[in-house]
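#onboarding

Welcome to the new folks! Below is a worked example of what a typical request in this channel looks like: someone posts a single protein sequence, and someone else replies with the predicted structure as tokens. Don't worry about understanding the tokens yet, we'll cover that in week two.

Example request:
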Amino acid sequence: MEKLKTGKYQDPFTETCSNIISGVITFFLFLIVTVFPLIYDNSYFNILETKYQCYYLCILGMLGISLVLALVMLLVDIKEYQGAHARDLFAGIHFRNWKKTFTIPDGAVILFWIVCLISTFQSDYFYESFWGNEGRFTGLFLLTLYTASFLLISRCWKVNGWILELFLISGMVMCVIGITDYFQMDILNFRGKANIENSTLFTSTVGNINTYTAYVALIMGYAAAMFATAKKWWKLVWYFVCLTVSFLAIIMGCSDNAYLALGILFAFLPYIVFWKRQGVVRYVVILATFFTVIQAVDVINQTYADTVIGLDSLFRILAGFGKLPAVVGLLWIAALAAWLVLGWKPGRRAGAAPSQPAATPGAAGLFRPRTDSSIPQEADAGERRLGKCLLTVWTILLVSGAALVVFMLADANMAGNGARYGSLGSYLVFNDSWGTFRGYIWKQSVDLYCRLPLLHRIFGFGPDTFGILTTDEIRFDMIQATGQVFDNAHNEYLNLLVTIGPFGTVAYMVFVFGQIRHMARKKNLAKHACVAGCCLAAVCYSAQALVNLNIPIAAPILWLMLSVGAAVCRREERTGDQETKVP
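Example response:
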């Protein structure tokens, strides 16, 4: 029987019911992490429709079967126990008890769904808002499935770590296919079947390279956090392989949104791992590995120049940097130095008194993680002081870097000095052509929003109706200026502002970033590495969303990561997690 933090044990009936519901959730999550990312039907022609149908069928199956089982259990409870368990359940979710049962992200996601509901009903295009069929299928129907699945998984799933390992395994398959596409091998014969112009803009089993790198960003974030916190050597090796492959995949994806995902990865990861000595060491290793991969890709491009697609934009600048080999060498020397200085720390023998030293050094080392059960999970006082000191310095560096970027942007745009920054000028000077005409559509999005009627400015034009709005209002000008029709703002948050209004946008951001903050609490990170993985995966996705769009290929995995992280944290708060099988 499961023991609660109150000291009481969960009764057998409740435990049996919860195990059954959790088993149903596990089965459908297995399908989502294995079948969903790899499924396809007719090359890239209907890749979005295929993924969308796979996802909503899985979620509908999970919700439907769970609901039927819950009703059956309710009838059994009424018949056998006079509804005692049901009364306890409904008392627990009563309004007066919401503070105990609902977190801020829970409230935000419910508010988000309510605003989407209102937005759909007040829209001039109710049918299209409900289904999202004139956009990327992210209408009220899919948003309802996202919300319902989050609430169900976060409350009812007893997390099994092997589901997340399967997520990495299927992700590796997807990444390897994408890497072979960079070599133009086309092992699935997708590009040959499609026979479309600019076929290199599509890759792997995902489709558009922007969506592909958004998915890889989730894999990369999860693998990086798991590598930085792994305790067993075989897990350390496995996560390092996954991280290296994801670096290769995101670079060879040739999409600009990868820069933001990588930037936030290296900026945010220290706040998760610098509280332990081994985290500092492994962070330097991750940094060295990334630049080594850049160097390897540069060698590949020179060796197979006639075969590979080739890099462009910022990755090409990095790969062509003449001092890159020296940087790689210095980073590996720094990793070795960090291991020698910080990696060896006296531990304790299992079962020994706290004051008794261990016979061998432990682990905060890079290749010998500490597994001694007698050593506390929390970093000791010395580690905490070191972590605070390093994070203070790191925060100062980040703030200084941000200030420098702001200065460069102001200098390039307001003072007109973009030319002085050379090849970086194309990133700093904001105009209509910036970011493959993202500059144009962002300015038009703000203008279109300001011209909406008052009710639409409050609740938006309707979920996933951005393409309808641009077609109705600026189609001719859009084609004249860019040569294309935009059905999305290519900025997830700006797109939400136009389609569901400021209240829905703020609710969504409070949900996502509130859940990230909840997962990033030290008490959650200290006990379960997978929480750190889910947290960093969500951070990487949220960063690249600034220049990308929300479609049901990568977005469902974001919701999955948030749901899994919430499930682990909630279960830890409720039971102390004596029996939950999480890494």
